[in-house]
Specification:
The structure holds 2 protein chains of 2 kinds. By secondary structure, chain A is mainly α. Chain A has 10 helices and 2 strands. In chain A, α3 (91-103) crosses α9 (254-269). Chain B is mainly α. Chain B has one domain (3-102). Classes of the chains: A mainly alpha, B mainly alpha.
Amino acid sequence: MTRNIMAESIVKDFKGKMDWVYVGKSEAPKPKETKADTLFHEYMQKVFDVAAPIAIAEIEDVSVTQGGIAQETVDQIVPLSLQKDVRDKPKFIKKWLEWEAKASSPDHQNRLGKLLTSAVYMAGSFGLNYGGNLLANKIFLDPKKDALHFPFKKTLSLSDESGNKEMLKAGWEYVTDAVTEQSTDRSVKWLTNREDIGFVSPLSRALGKLGNTAITVFGDLKKHDTKTFVMNSFVNPGFIEGLFRFVGAIPGGGFVKELYGKGNAQIMKGEGMIPFGTDLAFNMLIAKMIYKQKPIGD
Amino acid sequence: MNTKQNFINVVTQSRVLSREQKMELLTDSQLSTGYKEKLMGLLLEFDKNSKAREAYLRDKMEELYTKFIAQLDAEKIGEETKKELLGKAKKQMESFFPTLASV
């Protein structure tokens, strides 16, 4: 490799001129050093003292720049080789491979770490929500209770006809979801010692709310069945976010990571199919809920 | 100046690229514009720093050379020896700056 940099000239120069090599018998006469030679050697020492740190800085800068060039070249080569390999494959396979290559790039390494972290967050979010639901069942959603008693002889009926139980359950679900979301966000801030990042993204938040509404509409709240109870504990922003991240980190799950990123971008912009779809689903669920409530009012 | 021409100029004048790297970059037609722009950023940054280092080193070398002449005069070194030593020192100094013409 031929390169024309200052540092290499300096190093080469000193190596050639400053090494004294004596060959032969020990009694061979050493060169006589005059005053002029001493002055010259002193001068050369000063030159070296100035030039050496600059040469080192130059060599370091060469390494950093060549490293940057190599990194950029890898990023350039991966999609090109991918195109070559999958040229004859169907479009969706090409897209899938492209997303997978992106997820496996050097910028997105440490999949095992991501899988474990996501799993911990999923378990934590589920546990927190499940615990919250258990607590609610013990305190105010107990099937045996027909009313809640407050100070000053105030009473809130929990009869099936009143709808208060459903109201409390939906409200409690909202609170536990908010607590889960806040807890995961806060823990990420603590762990990373940064205030500008969080765990739950807008897409998971929207899906969590949508999921809860769907469970409220389709689940039979009055029966307090275990299936609905467990399902309710799964559907929370922290668990959904963890699930997205977990699946996105599994080899082959690159497409989930990509779609998840695009979904979040749509929600933040308020444009596209996902915001439209969630609004549509909310409207339909509310209509269904109102229909379910009608016979009670009759 | 368009990106293509700009890229050719930056690569050709780069101080950090080897001759082989320059040839590869200038003959590869598959390079994307984004890649070329990122590479130009890296190359220009290195060249800017390298020129600054070279300018600093040249100033210091001139300073040391002037002091060396004064020392030789103070020690009353003979003209012949002085000429020989200054010639060696000058040659030494010039060998540090292979890219002197580009600064």
